[in-house]
Amino acid sequence: MVAISPQLEQYGRETIQQHKLTFELLSDKGNRVAGQFGLVFKLPDDLRQIYLKFGIDLEKFNGDGSWTLPMPGKVVVDSRSIVRVAEADPDYTVRPEPGQLIEALRAIANA
Predict the structure, then answer these.
(1) CA 47: distance to chain centroid?
(2) What secondary structure does DSSP assign to 27-88, as a single string?
(3) Is the pTM of this model over 0.70?
């Protein structure tokens, strides 16, 4: 299992340590890969101000001034490189449930 984030690697390492992640966190600088799949959205100015009030400076964390984020989603690929599950939601507040991801992984493992 891997996660992909637009954060610069140094902030990704902090995320790994802070949340004690046991899987790889890959960096998609500039949301280039997410953009190829049409999964990037730009934060409007009013939302940027809210993020900044909470100390979330995407320009700093992501290393560019685009103020873009990828849509949260999940992709499950089996050992033969077949995509078994692909989900993303344009509403960034809708997040994949970890339990559903684990269920999908178990289904592949038991197939």
Answers:
(1) 19
(2) E-GGGHHHHHTT-EEEPPHHHHHHHHHTT--HHHHHSSS--EEEPPEEEEE-TTS-EEEEEE
(3) yes
pLDDT in tens, 77-89: 888 999 988 889 8
- Unique residue bearing structure tokens 């799949």: 37
Please say whether the beta carbons of 39 and 70 come within 8 A. Answer: yes
Who contacts 26 (Cβ-Cβ below 8 Å, separation ≥6)? 2, 3, 4, 5
Q: What is the DSSP pairing of strand 40-42 with strand 68-70?
A: antiparallel
Q: Domain limits of the chain?
A: 1-70, 72-111
CA 54 to chain centre: 19
